[in-house]
Write a structure and sequence with these properties.
The chain has 147 residues and is an alpha+beta fold. Helix content is 46%, strand content 24%.
């Protein structure tokens, strides 16, 4: 994989990965595809050995994944359609175990956003019976902390 053959090899790998990304819509495979295309571009300018190409591909992949994760993936939605966060933040409930799935849920005395029970996410170690306070809505889960 040296010379002009390596350029085409990396270009084909990049195009296949970018095309594969169209089926997943996660953008992770796109990072690898862009890295492969960049290695093809670099290899067309400078003659590199296979080890150098693999190292450059690895470094570019890590950089691309890092940029994707910290720039785009880490963003929270600025608005939630149909949800009033002011109405739910700070509400307290009690942790219970859902019988059908054995997952932890928070149960409220009154319905919150249409339901009395919600699946929970927490950085705290939660046990059945703990009282928790709602911090935010995270998809179909409520992010809570011990109260």
């Amino acid at each position: 994989m040296f010379g002009l053959d390596s350029v085409w090899t990396w270009a084909i790998i990049g195009i296949v990965l970018v095309g594969l990304e169209l089926t997943t819509a996660t953008f992770y495979i796109l990072c690898f595809g862009i890295s492969a295309l960049l290695v093809a571009l670099i290899s067309s300018i400078v003659t590199l050995g296979l080890n150098s190409q693999l190292i450059i591909f690895s470094i570019l992949s890590v950089i691309n994944l890092g940029l994707w994760h910290f720039r785009f993936k880490g963003k929270k939605a600025e608005f939630f359609i149909g949800q009033s966060l002011d109405d739910i933040e700070g509400k307290t409930g009690v942790i219970e175990q859902e019988p059908s799935t054995s997952k932890l849920v928070v149960r409220f005395n009154e319905a919150v956003m249409g339901s009395r029970t919600w699946l929970v996410l927490s950085d705290d170690q939660l046990e059945v019976g703990n009282e928790v306070k709602v911090l935010s809505v995270d998809g179909n889960y409520l992010r809570v902390k011990k109260h």
